């Protein structure tokens, strides 16, 4: 598994640590290796210097460096090289290094604790961590820089947004050797230039795709499923905008603890002349603690047998069937990863930070990286933007092509089954 730290962030940490070039090897990931202190110690004890990195859902990245090996017991331990750091705050680059006031209490070793710096100046968690329905983790530790570490007059809320919730926590072994960095400007995914010519070609190509004839299927239905406020409805509006030539706001978007979407709603996509294309984007309620989209409703939704405008509720469920469908992941809000990304969408496939997230999603869900697509949806823009359209259309083409392949396979399978059944019948009556 490739960690989420980017080359630029490794450069920053390398400068903070000092002395010589550094390499970073991922030892532990909370999403991959487990949510307990025992899991952490099994992978990270006696591994030499380490960097612990926490990523929270509000776009902040912070953590700590330990210059000596973690142990399962021993109490306070001296480390004159240890420090707490931050790399991003709310999606913007904010670099700070917080050094120890009291070197003799820089680290704390305990078998029940994950990485623990000072008197809970930074303690990730103890014992075991709870997993939220949206895939985030509630760390039961604490951030209180200022006791045994200098705060540099930075409040803790301006480091972790006042929450101990993370989308990922990683621990890297740090070694004294130069790492091999990819050449600057090298694309990790080859795509055409995201310009007006390309988006025009893509919209024309996608407008011509139709389901295989002869089966009564008039359009593809592309189902969007994800957490509350993930950007499903915004993605629908972005795709519609690419074909309409103007910013569309048909699917409801906005901020709400329970989400604004509460129905299964297929949206047709229209061209500038008003004609409908042969696919629909199907919006669904966001998955969350208080959402009507619970595990039961999600299971039956994936069966593909819900009527249009089906009203989801906690008490009303539908019948039982299990049909697998192919998965494509749309990574929305990629501009939140780094403040410079929003202004460089055309170079998104050269950004190693985006690649790290794509690789992580691929590893976590067990799907190929080419099934994961970064996009940015319309939010505050008043006019259409070619780069945004290009990213959305690349993802849309993958969705439609996979739907077409699955439909063809199932039609072929049905015909084969019918042929076998007919052959057996004829044999039995002969």
UniProtKB/TrEMBL annotation:
SMART domains: TLDc (SM00584). SUPFAM superfamilies: P-loop containing nucleoside triphosphate hydrolases. PROSITE patterns: TLDC. InterPro entries: GTP-bd (IPR006073), P-loop_NTPase (IPR027417), TLDc_dom (IPR006571). Residues 1-175 form the TLDc domain. Belongs to the IFI44 family. This is IFI44-like protein.
């Amino acid at each position: 598994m490739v960690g989420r730290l980017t080359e630029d962030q490794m450069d920053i940490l390398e400068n903070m640590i000092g002395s010589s070039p550094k390499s970073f090897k991922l030892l532990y990931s909370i999403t991959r290796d487990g949510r307990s202190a025992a899991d952490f110690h099994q992978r990270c004890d006696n591994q030499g210097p380490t960097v612990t990195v926490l990523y929270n859902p509000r776009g902040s990245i912070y953590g700590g460096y330990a210059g000596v090996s973690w142990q399962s017991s021993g109490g306070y331990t001296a480390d004159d090289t240890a420090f707490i750091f931050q790399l991003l705050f709310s999606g913007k680059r904010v670099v700070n290094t917080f050094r120890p006031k009291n070197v003799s209490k820089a680290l704390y070793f305990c078998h029940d604790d994950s990485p623990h710096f000072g008197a809970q100046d930074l303690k990730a968690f103890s014992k075991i961590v709870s997993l939220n329905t949206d895939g985030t983790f509630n760390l039961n530790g604490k951030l209180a820089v200022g006791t045994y570490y200098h705060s540099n007059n930075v409040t803790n809320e301006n480091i972790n947004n006042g929450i101990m919730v993370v989308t990922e926590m990683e621990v890297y072994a740090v070694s004294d050797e130069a790492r091999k960095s990819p050449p600057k400007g090298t694309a990790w995914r080859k795509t055409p230039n995201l310009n007006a010519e390309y988006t025009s070609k893509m919209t024309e190509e996608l407008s011509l795709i139709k389901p295989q004839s002869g089966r009564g299927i008039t359009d593809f239905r592309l189902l969007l499923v994800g957490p509350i406020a993930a950007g499903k409805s915004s993605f629908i509006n972005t795709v519609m905008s690419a074909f309409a030539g103007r910013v569309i706001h048909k699917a409801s978007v906005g901020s709400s603890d329970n989400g604004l979407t509460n129905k299964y709603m297929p949206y047709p996509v229209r061209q500038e002349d008003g004609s409908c294309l042969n696919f629909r984007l199907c919006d669904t309620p966001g998955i969350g603690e208080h959402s009507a989209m619970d595990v039961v409703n999600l299971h039956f939704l994936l069966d593909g047998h819900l009527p249009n405008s089906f009203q989801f509720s906690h008490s009303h469920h539908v019948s039982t069937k299990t049909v697998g469908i192919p998965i494509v992941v749309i990574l929305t809000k990629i501009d939140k990863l780094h403040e410079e990304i929003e202004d460089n969408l055309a170079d998104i496939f050269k950004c190693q930070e985006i690649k790290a997230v794509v690789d992580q999603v691929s590893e976590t869900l067990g799907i190929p990286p080419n099934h994961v697509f970064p996009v940015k949806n319309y939010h505050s823009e008043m006019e259409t933007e070619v780069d945004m359209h290009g990213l959305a259309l690349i993802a849309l083409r993958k969705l439609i092509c996979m739907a077409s392949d699955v439909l063809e396979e199932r039609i072929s399978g049905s015909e084969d089954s019918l042929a076998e059944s007919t052959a057996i019948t004829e044999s039995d009556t002969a």
